[in-house]
Amino acid sequence: MAVAPHALTREVVSARIQGRRADVGGTVFKYVLLSALLVTIAVLVILLYSQVDRGSEVLTGRLGDFITSKYSSLPTRSGIIQGINGTLTIAAFVIFIAVPLGVGAAVYLEEYAQKTRLTRFIDVNIRNLAGVPSVVYGILGLAIFARALRNVTGGASVMAAGITLAVLVLPIVIITSAEAIRAVPDSIREAGFGVGATRWEVTRSHVLPYALPGILTGTVLSVARALGEAAPLIVVGAKTGFFTGGDFGDLRDNFQALPSQIYQFSRLPESSWGGNTAAAIVVLLAIVLAVNSAAILLRNRFEKKR
Amino acid sequence: MAPDPDTAVETRRTEPAVDLAPQAGGHRGAPRPSKAVVFETEALNVYYGAFKAVRDVSLRVHEHEITAFIGPSGCGKTTMLRCFNRMNDLIETARVEGTLSYHGVDLYDPGVNPVEVRRRVGMVFQKPNPFPKSIYENVAYGPKVARLAKGGTAMDEIVERSLRQAALWDEVKDRLKASAMGLSGGQQQRLCIARCLAVDPEVILMDEPCSALDPIATGRIEDLMDEIKQQYTIIIVTHNMQQAARVSDRTAFFTAEVNETSDTRTGILVEYDATETMFSNPGDERTENYVTGRFG
Ligand SMILES: Nc1ncnc2c1ncn2[C@@H]1O[C@H](COP(=O)(O)OP(=O)(O)OP(=O)(O)O)[C@@H](O)[C@H]1O
Ligand SMILES: [Mg+2]
Questions:
Q1: Separation between Cα atoms, residue A63 and residue A79, nearest integer Å
Q2: What is d(CA B1, CA B11) in angstroms, rounded to the nearest whole number?
Q3: Which CATH number goes with the domain that contains B216?
Q4: Which residue's CA is the closest to the ligand 1 atom numbered 4?
Q5: What distance in Å separates the CA atoms of residue B252 and residue B269, rounded to the nearest whole number?
Q6: CA distance B60 to B254
Q7: Is B184 inside a domain boundary?
Q8: Who contacts A293 (Cβ-Cβ below 8 Å, separation ≥6)?
Q9: Going by DSSP bridges, is the β-strand pair B37-48/B94-102 parallel, antiparallel, or unpaired?
Q10: Strand (E) positions, B121-227?
Q11: What are the respective helix, strand and coil percentages of chain A, to the nearest 5?
């Protein structure tokens, strides 16, 4: 019997499945995406390079001195230890205040609260709070933490600044944690409830571990954001000139932090202070990068355990 | 046609059931002694929001028996099953109307703690849902929260016994610390069965436990069900008619009826009787069509 014209002979099949149609749109799109990525990376590299270049004298000549000395009116003797102390302390405040509060609020909203109109209203408003300009939080911090609660915080102190920034990033922690918790499949919760676990047992043993990588990512984004904020610190009252305090552990004392220190350096004459400004920027970037990398490492470890 | 006198009361919905209390002896001169009633539902309606998923179900589930729920997809078998251990509480829109009692106790009484209910009424879900943890931890989690064992050899024994019962032990005994997510679909389902058995429940609700299993594993699970029904009461949802006929003592046939006012379908209980009767001499034409495969 003759082979029918549509019979799937070896030749026909081979011709069909080996043909490679040119996918013009796909190829163009791929390169558009790639260039978007390259532009982003290029901007970062140029930024980093220009700062390293500008601060090279300080970074290579007297880095140890620069990061261990206090601010001085002499550019060649001035350092940023007060800024580093302030920034690290603020990070600690954010981690110890915003993270537990934010994760707790997110767990409550997602696992415990009934989905009523009130909770939806609260949800929307937390999102709005995340969009409030940081300088507004600075004014809030000045009024509440630096002035009204002066007896506790000691006035315009690193404690007032730390609490202000913790409040600033709280909505971000809540939103990212809530999203991570929402992404936990319901089937896991049902499995837990199905063997007679309580809500808390299911949350602790199954929901939180599963959501942990996402929560960590959100936490790190928040800490990084807090590390980089200058405006609220200036409003709350970071020291603008020479001062003697700013030692590590002086929670209720005058303070300085890296972003506001950079701002302060940048307002001084560029010819003599530019190197200090750039070097401080590089140090701040290094701290932020270190925090981010630590978090990514942690997250990968927890993700692997799934 | 003479329906089994023991179950006749279930399908007779016009008259209230006379002897609600579990009794050792038969009623109305039943030829074989009635087993204790574990679950009894009266005019049960289940809603998801405004949508009525199941309507007017009255039935009794007897102790140390296997009760099969059969019916076309979407007729509310899973929905019904999830009422028996208050799993529907977790779906915010779900609402149960009518009464459902467990050994005579109203399960939906405000004083009832759903956590305690689920400890006693275990469930194997339609889709395998192991925890993303190790095989060992999957089985040990229930006994741990129920404080049946703290750990150590006591826990090891529970884990081994449960995995053996679920016909999974030989395949996983060398990798108990490996993630359960690395198991095949059928192995995961047997792991979920083991996890359910580990807490030593009184009732086991199984939602299509064998749909992902090969005939050998299915056979083992059926043997297991037959074995453990001396200690437990089992309700199984299945799409496999042979399985229902093979393992169950009673069969409930559900179907979905198109509602007159809206374009939705509500599940109803068509017939509930001894499995033999349901498969050889059903009282309703729809049952006959379904069990003989003439119903889509
Ligand atoms: N969480 C839910 N929210 C809203 N409707 C639901 C929900 N779960 C089930 N339903 C609806 O209730 C009806 C019964 O569903 P159910 O899962 O009980 O069917 P089933 O008999 O188990 O079907 P299958 O054999 O396919 O598993 C369906 O119409 C389904 O769409
Ligand atoms: Mg189902």
A1: 9
A2: 14
A3: 3.40.50.300
A4: B48
A5: 7
A6: 14
A7: yes
A8: none
A9: antiparallel
A10: 121-124, 203-207
A11: 75, 0, 25
Q: How far apart are the first and last CA of chain B?
A: 26
For testing contact with chain B, the best of A195, A201, A212, A302 (most B CBs within 10 A): A195
Does A59-305 carry CATH code 1.10.3720.10?
yes
Domain count, chain B: 1
pTM score, two decimals?
Answer: 0.84
Supply the Cα-derived Rg of chain A in whole angstroms.
27
**B11 within a domain of the structure (yes/no):** no
Could you state, in order of their start, the residue ranges of all structural domains in chain A? Answer: 59-305
Helix, coil or strand: residue B134: strand
Q: Tens-of-pLDDT digits for all 296 residues of chain B?
A: 444 444 444 444 333 343 444 444 334 334 455 689 999 999 999 999 999 999 999 999 999 999 999 999 999 999 999 999 999 999 989 999 999 999 999 999 999 999 999 999 999 999 999 999 999 999 999 999 998 988 889 999 999 999 999 989 999 999 999 999 999 988 999 999 999 999 999 999 999 999 888 898 899 889 889 988 888 999 999 999 999 999 999 999 999 998 888 788 999 999 999 999 999 999 999 999 999 887 64
Burial degree of A92 (CB within 10 A; 0-12, 13-18, 19+):
middle
Residue with CA at minimum distance from ligand 1 atom 29: B74
Q: How far apart are CA A81 and CA A56, in angstroms?
A: 19
ipTM, two decimals, is 0.85
Neighbours of ion ligand 2 (CB under 5 A): B 78, 126
**Residue where the block lists tokens 């997110």:** A106
Q: Please, which residues 149-208 of chain A have a Cβ atom closer than 8 Å to chain B?
A: 185-198, 201, 205-206
B25 inside domain: no
**Would you call B252 helix, strand, or coil by DSSP?**
strand
Tokens representing B49 are 């929001």
- B22 domain-assigned: no
- Are the CB atoms for B66 and B227 separated by under 8 Å? no
